Amino acid sequence: MSSSAKSNEACTIYKDLRGYLTLLERAGLLKRVKAQVDLKHEIGAISARSLDRKGPGLVFENIKGFEGMPVVANILSTTEQVAIAFGTEPNDRKICAAIEKGMANPIPPRVVESGPCQEVVHSGAEASVHAFPTPWWHEGDGGQYLGTTAGVITADPETGYINMGLYRVMIKDKNTLTVKIKGSHPIGEVATAWQGRHGGHVHIFKNEAQGKATPVAVAIGMDPLLTYVGAQGVPSEEFKHAEYAVAGAWRKEPVDLVRCRTSDLLVPAWAEMIIEGEVLPNERAKEGPHGESQGFYDGVDRAFVIKVKCITHRKNPVIYGLICRPQEDYPKFLFSGVLGEKLKGVDAIKEVYVPEAIGGGLGLMAIVAAKVESPDDVAKVIQAVHNAPGESLRKKPRWLIIVDEECDVKDWNDVMWRVALAVMPDKDVRIGPRTDPISHEPLAAMHHNVSSSIVIDATFRSKKTIVDGREVGFPRVNRVSKELRSKVEGRWKEYGLD
Q1: pLDDT at 376 over 90
Q2: Is residue 101 pLDDT above 50, yes or no?
Q3: First to last CA, the chain
Q4: Residue 395 has pLDDT above 60, yes or no
Q5: What's the CA gap between 304 and 301, in Å, rounded?
Q6: How high is the pLDDT of residue 193?
Q7: Are 321 and 71 in contact (CB under 8 A)?
Q8: Which of 90, 225, 234, 382 meets the CB 3.0–4.6 Å disulfide criterion with 83?
């Protein structure tokens, strides 16, 4: 069976995280770590090094003190893995097209009577989060974070619409957690200040205004489609149970939901674990620090407080988490495909790359390879990038580097060679406004929300000058062509050089 055929089956074959892991293992994209590892920092360090080496998904099977309870990581970190998750060919642009299609065609979820996530139930004093392996991901973290890929689920008290976000959740004690949702929130902040916004924090404010606690559920070990959608800007106030509906569109069938044991919240039936509780009204706690996706540690003084009431889970639950960092187990590399899709109608643009390890999650930098012959051609490329439509792009690039079409945009040696030789700082570097200021802590405070952007014209062919009455440009670049390079790469094993 071809890899393409396997991918196309994925959305109808796997039902849950376990089924997805099986598909990854069959495709050679998952490795089982049988050596004993420590929750405190070691799992995080292994995951980080494996990400740097473009390694496979990892299943830690022998965790000190938690034998028989595996932790998985790095399962949405490569194009090949994400293609299996979405049932597409392993091509970033095709994955992005599938994502956009699902966003536009949601399928409502269905409520079922029971689900695997409630096979085992711990209530009251028996409900302790310490009973399950939670990594201490970074050496500088203030505690253990069970919420890095977990869905934090709340409902709007007015409409009943559910929101699920991938907010970070830290353990305070066996039945107390903190949740950080879009920064620090003083007591008394009202929902009207967030009018037109969506997210769990808005639900909490609405309940607090009436002196009420907010029912909450934390879903751990969800399937990859639910995990992915939890961090997307899905407008949960516009249609019912929005994140579940979008994930259903990607799966091509409704997401199964079950009702919580202690509230009316609906949660993913096939998740590995559900932590049920309530956000205490008008109560805040210090949270963090935590190593974040921007590459810095940050914490807040006023995080929401969750009191755990019940924990349900599957037998032998599989815990899924990630180490947050610039290059992490979340497909930020798809920004390249998203921007490429937005610019596919511009004939001059041949390739787009948004480096995930350098602000990829914030859309800070883009490298665009284009066929240009004059400064006017370069100007048209710049305009096309800055005017690219679509909310899913989130941010326009703060740094934009334009190179000639034969440049390998993913090869920093090739890109920076062109920057060093082709760029005259007084002529080819332009600083201007950027309409989208950085909103992520702690970068926003450092930049004071001043919005600016830089464009670097690192093209050779667009630049000419007059020498002895003749118009001359840069000499022809001495590089192996992409076509020949591709041919040679295809025969590499045949040469005996693999």
Answers
A1: yes
A2: yes
A3: 24
A4: no
A5: 10
A6: 61
A7: yes
A8: 90
User: Could you give the angle at the alpha carbon of 215 between the alpha carbons of 213 and 218, nearest 5°?
Assistant: 135
Helix (H, G, I), strand (E, B) or coil at 346: coil
At position 24, the amino acid (one-letter code) is L
pLDDT score for 443: 55
Would you kindly state where each structural domain of the chain is located, as residue ranges? 3-320, 334-490
Residues facing residue 37 across a β-bridge: 63
| Tokens matching residue 345 | 């109608």
334-490 topology per CATH: UbiD C-terminal domain-like (3.40.1670)
* Torsion 255-79-392-146 (CA) sign: positive
Structure tokens at 470: 């003749």
Average pLDDT on 449-454 reads: 71
75-95: average pLDDT: 93
**CA distance to 163, 255, 271, 333, per residue, from 153 (Å):** 6, 15, 13, 26
Residue partners of 427: CB distance under 8 A and separation at least 6: none
**DSSP-derived secondary structure letter, 369:** E
Q: Which two tokens stand for residue 460?
A: 């050779």
**Separation between Cα atoms, residue 136 and residue 75, nearest integer Å:** 19
Task: Classify residue 94 by its DSSP letter.
Answer: H
Return the residue matching tokens 């596919």: 344
Give the Cα separation of 61 and 43 in Å (integer). Answer: 11
Rg (CA), the chain: 24
Segment 139-166 shows an average pLDDT of 95
Rounded to the nearest 10 degrees, the angle between the axes of helix 17-26 and helix 79-86 is: 130
Of 476 and 27, the structure prediction assigns the larger pLDDT to 27
Mean confidence (pLDDT) of the chain = 88
Arithmetic mean of pLDDT, 386-405: 75
199 neighbors 161 (Cβ within 8 angstroms): no
Region 442-470: mean pLDDT is 77
419 contact partners, CB below 8 Å, separation of at least 6: 401, 456, 458
DSSP H or E run through 318: none
pLDDT tens per residue across span 249-301: 999 999 999 999 999 999 999 999 999 999 999 999 999 999 988 788 999 99
Which residues make Cβ contacts (< 8 Å) with residue 412, sequence separation at least 6? none
Measure the CA–CA gap between 117 and 488, rounded to whole angstroms: 50
